[in-house]
Amino acid sequence: MALHIINRSPFQHSALSECLDVISETDILVLIEDGTYASSKPTADEDKLAHIISSGRAYALREDLSARGIVAQTHVINMDEFVTLCTEHNPIQSWF
Amino acid sequence: MKKILFVNRQAPFGRSYAKESLDALLAGSAYDQDISVLYSGDGVFQLIKEQQAKSIGQKNIAATLPALEMYDITKIFAQASALNTRGLTAEQLAIDVKLLTDTEIATLTQNQDCILSF
């Protein structure tokens, strides 16, 4: 199972949508930095992202959410949990 | 031997990613690993044959691509949907690449030990 890290806003960059095009059914998605803006509002990729969120495969970093004042619909994780997810998944792909 | 995938998602000249990816790729080929290369998203623009980067004071990225074969890098893939979206065809590309569907890219990704993103 792969882990995909997104650090760009879905409203300005295609990183998230390009990732959603090729993500597998068993992969997980971790939203960090400006990528966390995808965790609250639906985007153009609403359906795919909503599916990943509802199947419990989307995570967002607490520090980045609170810094931006975002309420996430994804799992919310701290840095330690992020590290744990990284150790549990392979390969890890960064989208920026 | 590790399976390593180089993913190129950026257009060639606006930033240094394309050049850095090639440098890493050629250097990495010396370590006898199982290397694959994927061009997706705007990364497919790196493959265009008719580049004349001299006009902006840079080197043609596409000119280096034929060298990959000499370095035993033969698993070179491009995202078919990215080419379509950008109005590109295989004939316009500097090297032979295997076109992959998004589903095939998902499988390729999952089969890797390590992914280097550029």
Silhouette of chain A: globular
SS field, number of helical segments of chain B: 4
Radius of gyration of chain A: 12 Å
- Proportion of residues in helical segments of chain B: 25-40%
**Main sheet record of chain B:** 5 strands, parallel
CATH names the topology of chain A as Hypothetical Protein Ychn, Chain: A
- Percent of residues in β-strands of chain A: 15-25%
Task: Sum up the overall morphology of chain B in one term.
Answer: globular
- Amount of beta strand of chain B: 15-25%
Roughly what is the average pLDDT of chain A, rounded to an integer? 92
CATH superfamily of chain B: DsrEFH-like
Describe, in short, the structure shown.
The complex is a heterodimer of chains A (96) and B (118). By secondary structure, chain A is α/β, with parallel strands linked by helices.
List keywords for this structure.
heterodimer; A: 96 residues; alpha/beta; Hypothetical Protein Ychn, Chain: A; five-stranded parallel beta sheet; 4 helices; globular; B: 118 residues; 5 strands
Could you outline the blueprint of secondary structure elements for this entry?
The complex is a heterodimer of chains A (96) and B (118).
Chain A: E1 3-6, H1 15-22, E2 28-31, H2 46-54, E3 58-61, H3 62-68, E4 75-77, H4 79-88, E5 92-95
Parallel strand pairs in A: 1-2, 1-5, 2-3, 3-4
Chain B: E1 3-8, H1 17-28, E2 34-39, H2 61-64, E3 75-79, H3 80-85, E4 98-100, H4 102-110, E5 114-117
Parallel strand pairs in B: 1-2, 1-5, 2-3, 3-4
What does this structure look like?
In chain A, α1 (15-22) links the parallel β1 and β2 (28-31). By secondary structure, chain A is α/β, with parallel strands linked by helices. The model of chain A has no long low-confidence stretch (mean pLDDT 92). Helices cover 35% and strands 20% of the residues of chain A. Chain A has helices at 15-22, 46-54, 62-68, 79-88, and strands at residues 3-6, 28-31, 58-61, 75-77, 92-95. Chain A contains four helices and five strands, in the order βαβαβαβαβ. Chain B is α/β, with parallel strands linked by helices and 118 residues long. Chain B has a single domain (3-117), classed as DsrEFH-like (Hypothetical Protein Ychn, Chain: A, 3-Layer(aba) Sandwich). Chain B has helices at residues 17-28, 61-64, 80-85, 102-110, and strands at residues 3-8, 34-39, 75-79, 98-100, 114-117. Chain B has a five-stranded parallel β-sheet with strand order 4-3-2-1-5. Chain B is globular, with a radius of gyration of 13 Å. Chain A binds chain B through residues 1-2, 14-15, 18, 21-24, 26-27, 90-96, and chain B through 5, 7, 9, 40-41, 79, 81, 102-103, 105-107, 109-110, 112-115, 117.
